Amino acid sequence: MKLKSLRDKIDRIDEKILKLLNQRAGEAIKVSEVKEKSSSRIYSPAREANILNQLKKMNKGPLTTEDTEMVFGEILSVCRSQKTVLRAAYLGPQGTFTHLAAIKKFGKKSEYIPSESIGEVFERVEKGEVDYGVVPIENSIEGVVNYTLDMFFVSTLKICAEVTLNVSHSLLGTSLKFAKSKIKKIYSNPQVFAQCRKWISRNMPDIELIPVSSTAYAAQAVKKDSEAACIGNKILTNLYGLKIIATPLQDSPHNFTRFLIIAKNDSLPSGRDKTSILFSIKDKVGALCNVLTSFEKYRISLTKIESRPSKRKPWEYYFFVDFTGHRNLTRVQKVLKELKKGCLFVKILGSYPTES
């Protein structure tokens, strides 16, 4: 009788939740109609970031912060799609970590378009084939994704949001009974091999490692190769009919990859933002030091700085920098003004909500 009473109580709560969700969806439709008349974007990174941050602050449990973000992220996705389905391109095929990051950011109700390269993701957004693109920018173990940096150098697109994914790797094969001794080769992305270097050296030191462009392509290769296994996320088991042979494989339990959401425009201020820029400095003593002094002068924290060859001239470099604050802030504008005086060029890649 106690169990029945508890279940009856849950049923009543579910009924209330359903009514409220339908009310929310109704209001979201009205918002979409207003946005259509004003030609506003269907996805507002600043607005959704503020909603999730506020809900996480209000949460008293037993739901965790991650639970709250996951549940309400899907609610936002469903409500957003009542009038228009958002379309996002990602580095494919289906099942890559970039695909997972896209779903985490936009929810399951959005439409996802796989692309064969990071360059193709940029191209699809530039041509208007999709609303947004999702590209990897850095891994906490292996560092920056250089190809993404290089694309920002030539592209006019902006960064409007970011998403971080906790990366976990498994050894996958066609059967649970697939003994390690029968594995002759392992397919995966080169960065994944690097993230699992110690495990591979300790457990399968003599195995041939075959690099491919993504873990999803690795899974596809395994389906065609009876002597092969692959390393990737466990979601590949459902997508490609594989089994987990060993897990986890990554050398560090704190393995995160950061992804950027690209669009034709960046985000409005959310109150908790960061800005990304590219700049190239003059070839003289103390040039970089002088540039960085401007950030200290206006009390702006740098969260990332990375150098890349310009590819235009030997030993010429440009710098990719993330710092706290939105480009509309007065002190940020002062820094940018000083940078333009001391640099060969400055390119603002976008301001967007910081993922907390």
Protein architecture, described:
There is one protein chain. The protein is α/β, with parallel strands linked by helices and 356 residues long. It contains twelve helices and 15 strands. The chain has three domains: 139 residues, D-Maltodextrin-Binding Protein, domain 2; 77 residues, Periplasmic binding protein-like II (D-Maltodextrin-Binding Protein, domain 2); 81 residues, Alpha-Beta Plaits. Strand 3 and strand 4 form a beta hairpin. The mean pLDDT is 90.
Total individual domains: 3
Name the CATH superfamily assignment of the largest domain.
Periplasmic binding protein-like II
Low-confidence stretches: none
Named at the architecture level, the CATH assignment of the largest domain is 3-Layer(aba) Sandwich
Q: Into which percentage range does the β-strand content fall?
A: 25-35%
What is the class of the largest domain in the CATH system?
Answer: Alpha Beta
And the CATH topology of the largest domain?
Answer: D-Maltodextrin-Binding Protein, domain 2
Rg on CA atoms, Å? 23 Å
Helix content: 40-55%
Outline: globular
- Our measurement of the CA-to-CA distance between the termini, rounded to an integer number of angstroms, reads 44 Å
Largest sheet: 6 strands, mixed
Q: Notable features of this structure?
A:
globular; six-stranded mixed sheet; alpha/beta; five-stranded mixed sheet; 26% strand; 12 helices; Alpha-Beta Plaits; 356 residues
Question: Gist?
Answer:
By secondary structure, this protein is an alpha/beta fold.
